[in-house]
């Protein structure tokens, strides 16, 4: 790390595609796709940090394919721009298995332990900052917690999927610098043999479980078949699969009556995936167990509900016994 460039004058990112010996060109479609996803990541980070910036591109350089992206700060805070550039470098070069929380924690530790920033913290203010460093740090930490990890992962995955299609590329370098580009602040390299570590193997997200979901039934399924039920969950009309065979049999045999406003309390599994832009999309709902249904507004416990309640009571009893023994 070269201290001739400091966090407060960082404003340029270099993206360098290293090519195999004797090769001087890169696939144009791959290049454009990579730049699109790269800019998308910058925009996501800038939006989360509430930075008002323009991103300007400078002419390509020699020695492989090199492009420079300059962050036009407008009225943006200098420390925040440094965080943006530092985060961008780390996000691009961090494998898909590493969490965003880990990355942001390390970045903020690095930046706010920097001698220049520590000195500013002692001074409390400096003309180009206009804010106490402690206030800036607290604000950035709050904003980093709101970064959409799925969007960053997907855009990064798209980037590496694109660049991996050009077999002439041996590695990628991303580094932070200032407008002069004579010295660098931080540098990260990713070899072509490692590109697959950054590509998502599936767009499916971890299913979400609501163990006490209340669903108002609009349309139950009263005959056998792979038909979906219709109900209202958290104010939204949903179609869902009834996966509780026990409850389905109770319905089919007439043990559970349905009328206007009938509801169930259940274990609801919501499946999601992310689209190409990293936005979450619900792909399906499944009711795995039904614990209660309502008859004349009175809750009726199902066998599944009874078993769950007994299991919870047994667990509480065991914890109580353990605590008593612990104090003997």
Notes on the protein architecture:
- This protein has helices spanning about 30-50, 80-90, 100-110, 115-125, 135-145, 150-165, 245-250, 305-325; strands at about 10-20, 55-60, 65-70, 170-175, 185-190, 210-220, 230-235, 235-240, 265-275, 280-295, 300.
- By secondary structure, the protein is α+β, with helices and mostly antiparallel strands.
- It has 2 domains: about 5-200, no CATH class; about 210-325.
- Helix 1 (about 30-50) crosses helix 2 and helix 1 packs antiparallel against helix 6 (about 150-165).
- It is elongated and about 80 Å long.
List keywords for this structure.
single chain; 328 residues; alpha+beta; 2 domains; 11 strands; elongated
Mean pLDDT across all residues, rounded?
87
Distance between the termini: 59 Å
- What is the ordering of alpha helices and beta strands? EHEEHHHHHEEEEEHEEEH
What is the number of helical segments per DSSP (H or I, 4+ residues)? 8
Q: Say how many strands there are.
A: 11
Q: How many domains?
A: 2
User: Could you give a short account of the major beta sheet?
Assistant: 5 strands, antiparallel
The class by helix and strand makeup works out as: alpha+beta
Q: Strand percentage, roughly? A: 25-35%
- Rg of Cα set: 27 Å
Helix percent band:
25-40%
Ranges where pLDDT stays below 50 over 5 or more residues in a row are none
Shape: elongated
Strand order of the largest sheet: 2-3-1-4-5
